[in-house]
Design a protein that fits this description.
Strand content: 5-15%
Mean pLDDT: 88
Largest sheet: 3 strands, antiparallel
Number of domains: 2
Order of helices and strands: HEHHEEHHHH
Oligomer: single chain
Helix content: 55-70%
Distance between the termini: 54 Å
Structural class: mainly alpha
Number of strands: 3
Radius of gyration: 21 Å
Shape: elongated
Strand order of the largest sheet: 1-3-2
């Protein structure tokens, strides 16, 4: 459902767009919150047309491009989703799973895994910081679309980097204690 909502929200904010334009917008903004491959976007757009959440028209440029526009029904769907209480929101976090399973390794090896995890999150943080600069350069200061999610991404990447560093340090301390025995 979230891909559908992300597409509807992007169309609602930016206005009519082709599938290619939507995919590019995902790559430079919403991808931080919800990742989608180009091959996932087009089938979802077709389902959205069929359900009446968007309309589709030929771009009229002779290339067969289709332009999608959110409908009132699509806007209502966004409102319902944002206001809804999804008790079954799934969480998949490979870093958290790594945190569970890393303890199955010897402490020194586990510490190295967590240092690699720290580096991945540090790289993600740098990527999000760069994205923030790009967003600020191309959007008006009073345009809030995506800014709250961007701030969440910055905080999350910082927290995950710090968590991995602290976990690695704890494992390194355990390895040192084992070495002294």
């Amino acid at each position: 459902m979230s891909l559908r909502i992300a597409l509807l929200g992007t169309l609602a904010h930016h206005g009519p767009a082709t599938g290619y334009e939507l995919a590019k917008r995902f790559d430079t903004s919403i991808n931080l919150a919800w990742q989608a491959k180009h091959g996932q976007i087009y089938p979802e757009l077709a389902r959205m047309v069929k359900s009446g959440a968007v309309t589709v028209e030929n771009a009229g440029d002779g290339r067969g491009r289709k332009v999608y526009t959110v409908t009132d029904a699509g806007r209502r769907e966004i409102t319902e989703w944002v206001n809804g209480d999804d008790l079954y929101r799934g969480v998949r976090n490979e870093s958290a799973l790594r945190g569970f399973l890393v303890t199955l390794l010897p402490p020194r090896e586990a510490a190295a895994v967590m240092r690699a995890e720290e580096a991945r999150h540090a790289a993600k943080l740098a990527e999000v910081e760069h994205l923030k600069e790009e967003v600020e350069a191309r959007t008006a200061p009073d345009d809030p679309f995506g800014r709250y999610a961007l701030e969440l991404g910055l905080r999350n990447a910082t927290m995950m980097r710090d968590w991995a560093a602290e976990t690695a340090k704890d494992l390194e301390n355990k390895a040192e204690k084992e070495d002294r025995r």
